[in-house]
Amino acid sequence: MNERSRGWRRWVAGAAFLMAVGFLSTRTCRSESASAEIRFRVGDAGARLERLDAELYRPGEQDVLGYYRRFYDRAGGSRAEAGRWPLRADAGMYRMVIDLTTQTGKVRVERGLEIQDRAVITIDLQRDLERDLAR
Fold it and tell me: I need a labelling partner for 64 at 20 to 30 A (CA). Which of 14, 54, 96, 129 fits?
């Protein structure tokens, strides 16, 4: 076999190998990533809601992976559903810290949640707000 054709075959084989590895790695990364929507339910207590802040963490870690903030009119507050947060993250378990600012003070709530692809996750905050209003 000619030395020149052997070199050409090695180059083509190496390029094909790198392309195959690149293709497989993009497919693997896409399959781990999930699109989800998080909804915050506040019920009638949302009428006194002024601000909602939510931070997403991996369990046991301190780095914020995602952040959601929404302000509400002091006169009208929020409807029964305070917001929708479209989120893209790896599928798995997470921890969410939610700060609610009302006309009477602040409420901090922590919830665990599991993110799966195409999931709609509703976090019920109504009783936490009602407890704050009862103080």
Answer: 129
Exposed, middle or buried by CB within 10 Å (0-12, 13-18, 19+), for 52?
A: buried
Distance CA 53, CA 44 (A): 19
Sign of CA dihedral 86, 87, 92, 97: negative
In CATH terms, the fold of domain 34-134 is Immunoglobulin-like (2.60.40)
Q: Which amino acid is at 73?
A: D
Overall average pLDDT of the 18-46 stretch: 75
Domain residue ranges in the chain: 34-134
- CA dist., res. 28 & res. 25, Å (int): 5
Sheet containing strand 33-41, strands side by side: 81-90, 33-41, 119-124
As a whole number, mean pLDDT of residues 52-72 equals 92
Residues 79-117 pLDDT 10s: 778 788 999 989 999 999 999 998 888 999 999 999 999
